[in-house]
Design a protein that fits this description.
This protein is of the alpha/beta class. Helices cover 34% and strands 19% of the residues. It has a six-stranded parallel sheet, sandwiched between helices. A five-stranded parallel sheet has the order 7-6-8-9-12, with helices on both faces. The chain has a two-stranded antiparallel ribbon with strand order 2-3. Helix 3 packs parallel to helix 4 (96-104) and helix 5 (140-151) packs across helix 6 (175-186).
């Protein structure tokens, strides 16, 4: 029996595209949903670009999207901290877009050490919270500064906790490894996660959709983030096998996805 779904939240990497190529049937599927009057949003744990850039990429790949339809983990973290703890001094393990996103929300970023001796560490007394994100500029200096600050009692936040970021030809290390490193060294546990599977991201998505969870569906390629977040929100869930998940993993996972799709084009086999 097909499900009546009016709102769809799509993951990006591994679900709609991989690298610079749209995945099989992705443009046609999103276009047909829009033709049927369905609401569509896109979410990404990547804090590397603003939502406008992801919207431009989707449009370039044949999936027209606006900035308001894209929600990133960096945006979610900025919104949350601006509303709850706007005065914190943040040390960021992350790239420049994340810094800009947080500053755009009026948050204070502790200056990095790009022009100083790479062995130097920022005084941890001047850091109220450490923010960890996907960071391809990660080095020992950043790790040591974060370690010293956390040992002195700084708060511990992250945009996302993915271990691997899918890329053409294979995945690359993501923020999860950095989080695990700092947790192991300090004995501290991550205090706040902004991206999937955090309810913070889904709360913003549900507000934008303006629909009850029971009439919405989360679709992604990751069981531990996409499917868990949708399940926890009370949404229908569909996992696609075009990213990091195999059919065997999906079938054995708890919570189980409602639907397992070889590719996004199979969505219409399950929804009205």
């Amino acid at each position: 029996m097909k499900r009546l779904i009016d709102g769809f939240v799509f993951d990006l990497d591994g679900t709609l595209y991989l690298g610079e190529s749209a995945l099989t049937h992705a443009p046609e599927t999103v276009a047909e949903l829009r033709r049927r009057g369905k609401k569509v949003l896109f979410v990404s744990n990547k804090p590397l670009e603003p939502g406008s850039v992801y919207a431009q990429k989707l449009t370039r790949l044949g999936i027209p999207a606006s900035s308001e339809e894209v929600i990133t983990s960096a945006f979610v973290l900025g919104c949350h901290l601006a509303c709850t703890e706007p005065g914190l001094r943040l040390f960021v393990i992350g790239e420049e877009n994340l810094r800009q996103e947080l500053r755009a929300h009026g948050l204070h970023i502790v200056p990095d050490l790009l022009d100083q001796d790479p062995r130097e560490v920022i005084d941890p007394q001047g850091i109220d919270a450490v923010v960890v994100a996907f960071d391809r500029t990660l080095d020992y200096r950043k790790l040591n500064t974060a370690y010293q600050a956390l040992k002195k009692g700084a708060r511990f936040f992250a945009t996302n906790s993915d271990n691997i970021c899918p890329m053409p030809g294979g995945g690359i290390p993501d923020a999860g490894a950095t989080i695990a490193y700092l947790e192991h060294l300090t004995g501290r546990k991550l205090e706040l996660l902004a991206g999937k599977p955090s309810p913070l991201m889904m709360n913003i998505a549900m507000q934008r959709l303006g629909l009850p969870a029971g009439r919405c569906m989360m679709i992604g390629d990751r069981l531990e983030t996409d499917i868990k977040m949708g399940h926890d929100a009370g949404m229908a869930t569909g996992v696609v096998l075009t990213g990091v998940t195999t059919r065997a993993l999906a079938a054995a996972h708890s919570p189980a996805p409602d639907f397992i799709l070889n590719h996004i084009g199979q969505l219409f086999d399950y929804i009205e």
